[in-house]
Amino acid sequence: MIRVKIIIFFILLNLFLVKNFLSASEENIYDKIDLFGEVLNKINKEYVEEIDQSEAMDAAINGVLQSLDPYSAYMSPESFENMQTETSGEFGGLGIEVSMEAGVVKVISPLDDSPAYEAGVKAGDYIVKINDIQVQGKTLNEAVEIMRGPVGSDIEITVRRKGVKKALVFNITRKIIKVRSVKSKIIDNNIGYIRLTAFNENSSNQIKKKINEFNKNENIEKFILDLRNNPGGLLSQAIKITDFFLSSGEIVSTKSRQENENRKWFAQAGDILNGETLVVLINNGSASASEIVAGALKDHKRAILVGENSYGKGSVQSIIPLRNKGAIRLTISKYYLPSGESISEVGVSPDIVIAEDNDNFRIDTDSDNQLTYAIKLLNG
Hints:
The protein is built from ten helices and 19 strands. By secondary structure, it is α+β, with helices and mostly antiparallel strands. It has three domains: 74 residues, no CATH class; 89 residues, PDZ domain (Pdz3 Domain), CATH 2.30.42; 197 residues, 2-enoyl-CoA Hydratase, Chain A, domain 1. Helix 1 runs antiparallel to helix 2, helix 7 packs parallel to helix 8 and helix 8 runs parallel beside helix 9. The longest helix has 21 residues. The chain is globular, with a radius of gyration of 23 Å. It starts with a helix and ends with a helix.
């Protein structure tokens, strides 16, 4: 019992420091700490079931972080280890990028060719039930842990989709997720099409290689960069890829609490397409790094944006390891476009709005009306 009290004391002290750092409230923080301790004591003594003190503390820490924004969160040692495994580019799961919104898990985007993608899960779907477990009240990490499982095992997720009255149920088989960030093809003998699914370490090199191949073909004089359902990735890759298409000007800036940490990135001379016409496709699943590329090219009038408004994830998260081998994901700055506008919660609007017209929309198929429109636009 003494050990538990000591642990509670240090957690309360840490919560006090976090709260004091993040808020300018004039309320007596010590009264809040006392109140927090009282609530924990009541829960421990009177809650209908015995609780795990460690799990309760994890939930309290995560509650502080998730009250800040949908992207800040606490990762237990197990969750942190799983995240490090996933960033290797091959992992088991459903293949969806998710965030938390209003207590429910929201799909940012399904990864191309993943089990979720093939089942029909779409960007913007709200996951309300996983198997027979209600998601409401769960933390994002808890929901993600429930969705994980052995490769080859089945899972049922229930989603709510805007514009659809009835809940949709998807039965999905987990598998190894292999992230292929760049795909390309030639359309109508004169359009170079590049699909970027994520901003990984080698994305810029792959895109540069594909464009150089296109440039050797004298018939190709128009280009499409497809960023739909791209949840983002490395900022450095977003800057490099944007720089391919600009000869000068600001690409993106970040603003943080500490002024000396504010930064701006600028394009270097040279346009890899030599000024040829470029169309960029975006949708509700285009987030973060995708929005930086699309927004910068739009602001500099270097590309025509076609599709739907992007997701609006315009913030930078830092993974900060903790002494217990867990970590916190904390928002430390926000992205701003060359125009000075923030991406956060607003997104990037297309020049030409073309909504997805098919619930079974799949990229690179005949039902892809957005790509069809872009081709017609380029071919006059």
